[in-house]
Structure prediction request, 632 residues.
Amino acid sequence: MSLLELRDLSVTYAGDVPAVRGVSLGVAPGEVLGVAGESGCGKSTISNAVLRLLPKSARVGGSVLLDGEDVYEMSFGRLRAVRWATASIVFQGALHSLNAVQTIGRQIAEPILLHEPKTSRKAADLRVGELLEQVGLPARRAKDYPHQLSGGQRQRVMIALALACKPRLLIADEPTTALDVMVQAQVLQLLTGLVKDLGLALVLISHDLSVLGTTCDRVAVMYAGKVVEEGPASVVFDDSRHPYSGALAGAFPRVGDPRFRYAPAGLAGDPPYPGDLPPGCSFHPRCPVAFDRCVSEEVELLDLGAGRRAACLRAGEGS
Amino acid sequence: MRGYVLKKVGWSIGTLLFVVVFNFFLFRLLPGDPIGLYTRGRNMSPDQLVRLRQQLNRPISEQFVEYLGNPFASTINSTRFNRPVWDIIGERVWPTVLLVGTAVLVAAVVGVWLGIRSGWRRGSRFDRITTGTTNTLYAMPEFWVGMMLIMWLPFFPSGGINSVGVSGFFATAVDTAWHLVLPVTALAVVYLAEYTSIMRASLVDELRQDYLTLARAKGLREDLVRRRHAVPNALLPTMTLIFLNLGFVIGGAITVEYVFSWPGLGLLTAEALRGPDIPLLQAVFLLFSLGVIVFTLLADLLYAVLDPRVSTR
Prediction:
């Protein structure tokens, strides 16, 4: 059974801006689900929607089931109990997500003391030390303020913070953006290790396909607030059924593969503004294989078998 | 941290030196015969005049060195009171400290509270009423507020610090507090408006920050998100402003002290300006500048304590 299940989730921001339009996804314990897409496609909105962290002005449709329980039906007390204890988020941009005037130790201990009120301060401090060492930071750094750490260290603090209450679901929103390749590899190894060791369910949000391809079991590609293709990570990018995933994969050339030497890489144009989407398939203005039906027909995800889905009229044609 | 403190103290001393030098030469540049200014309206023997003139006739460099040696001691008495200026100032400092201190304290506590409440619920009825009221209050001159208070609340004393015939420590304290009500209100009302709007604005700035989303995601109650995370961060600019203002408030109390005949430094300045009482003014200016410098330094040091980022920057 899925630990997290999104059913036809839609989020509309104030001013009638649909950021997420009917997304259905699920992730089971011990599984890594990747969510890919350009900036502004609704990836981060989904991560905030899971714990009901969107601004009050945002309208949410569909449902978010966490362990079978609808997050949007919960009382506030129940919601607060679920937040961080069942599901936690590694937020994007560690510098701004940490409180600048509190030591990181205090910030990591805060949810522990909140969700396990019987914990003594001393025991919490010990846990903080363990958590920091788990992410490869010496325990004494707990006394440091966020500005005293490097970007990579802060990112690891965010992961330690997210693990503080031993959640069963971890949503990592661009956890490796702005990190150099070495640190990026360390952080990813850490995350996948946790999935294996603790049986966590991990949702890995990233725009970097090389990251997703190597770490995820399944990948969902998003475009303009919709999932356009979903399937096992190994096949989505190598044998994509939606021209957008194909274009994304083409933008990451593989050294030594002659295909990338001759094929034009990249995708012309910009993603559409969510408040002003084109009719029909919202990808058609940029699509290299679009035909007349794409302009008028709204395309739903089609089941292609073998756990694959794609939202393209030509998906059945094969590659 | 130590380097930061040393740097700030060094700057303060430098500023103070500049003020001392400026304060000395400014009064030497005033037009007219200084003897005439110093002695106006007083009977002085020719003997005394000669001695005074001799004092002023020495080379300016010599006088400057003497002044630098101890700028807080004036060799020339106040012309209005005919007493050493620092004796007079010593008597007048405490009423001002009491008045301004109480007013700033009241304004800071109430202003910060109002700012937090209205900023946290931005756009609410409470916010609209508070913002409208404080903007109106901010636009009103303190002395006018003082005059209106005297007219509207005639059961409070309209001036002075004590009634005649009150004795005993406790009775005097109560009587002084009673006299304090109106001048403190007049001063506090205006500063309150400033503190409220600053606190509100900085809290509204913090509301958009990512660390508050994280605090909510941790499962904190809204009031804890506000108390533990938003307010401490939003307080930083407000605390600095309150301390910076304290320095200026001593000089700013002139009009209020005048309206309420409050025997403090402000009223003393107004009296000295009428003379003009040059030695007294010189001393008062130096004191006001010192106030601004000291409180600016305190604001800097306090900021470093509250915000760990400052001292390492």
In short: Residues 4-86+167-317 of chain A form a domain with the Rossmann fold fold (CATH 3.40.50.300). Chain A has two domains: 4-86+167-317, 99-166.
